[in-house]
Amino acid sequence: MRKKVIAGNWKMNMLPNEAMNFINNLEPIAKNAKCDVILCVPYTDLFYSLLTAQNTNIKIGAQNMHWEEKGAYTGEIAPQMLKCINVEYVIIGHSERRQYFAETDETVNKKLKAAMANKLIPILCVGETLKQRELGLAEEIITQQTELALEGLSKEQIEKVIIAYEPIWAIGTGKVATKEDANNAIKQIRNKIASLYGKETSENVTILYGGSVNSQNAKELFSTSDIDGALVGGASLKVEEFEKIINSI
Ligand code: PGA
Question: Is the separation of the CB atoms in 233 and 210 below 8 Å?
């Protein structure tokens, strides 16, 4: 059985005191959740969030990292730096990083390998733009992003990766993909993994949908065959809203 996951991506929001309050309020819901609950928080919230989430069911992740172990990379954070404070997860290749910070399939692949080498669980984001979708290129883009990102990982490592299918046109826009479209895209990703690494591996990878998920549309998305949960941006900033999404799975 694949793991179900609801992950929040706070992006560049929340100060440490807000993060700690949020986690304290979420704790009773996370305790009874039928899925893994992850919060991917800004670097400056990591330590406070990890302390507050100790002995709870809430897991903490970062939103990015560099692939090198150390060195002259001003402003960057190394995988070991996350690991040594007990961060468990890290988002890799979010479309905002690809778009605004020039991340490429190549750097995404290096980051995935570095995450694995440091026993961090990557949440790999893939997704097409509106233009690519309109040109009928969505499947090609998302399967290619998946293939290039996973290149060089073992089957065992791939089964640990969480993939988030996030169509760029649905992120922060209020335009959610239909459950059929989202489920279909996720099936295409799964088929690609099956063709490269075998059916068993593909069936074991948790694949989430992300893009304007909220308490109104979550249940419907989760009623599908292949959507194993969600990566939630805006709706993960309000505890009541995030709780409803967790309870929808
Ligand atoms: P959104 O963001 O839920 O605000 O659309 C999702 C994401 O970027 O991970």
Answer: yes
Tokens, residue 86: 């007990």
Cβ–ligand 1 distance for 234 under 6 Å, the answer: yes
1 pLDDT band, cuts 50/70/90, is: confident
Domain containing residue 238:
5-246
φ, ψ for residue 81, nearest 5 deg: -65, -35
**Does the C-beta of 40 come closer than 6 Å to ligand 1?**
no
pTM of the model: 0.97
Beta partners for residue 122, in sequence order: 90
Q: What's the distance, Cα to Cα, between the start and end of the chain in Å? A: 15
Q: What is the pLDDT of residues 73-106, one digit of tens each?
A: 999 999 999 999 999 999 999 999 999 999 999 9
Q: What is the CATH number of the domain that holds 196?
A: 3.20.20.70
- 55 pLDDT band (50/70/90 cuts)? very high
* Total structural domains within the chain: 1
Three-state SS string across 2-17, please?
CCCEEEEECCCCCCHH
Protein residue whose Cα sits closest to atom 9 of ligand 1: 233
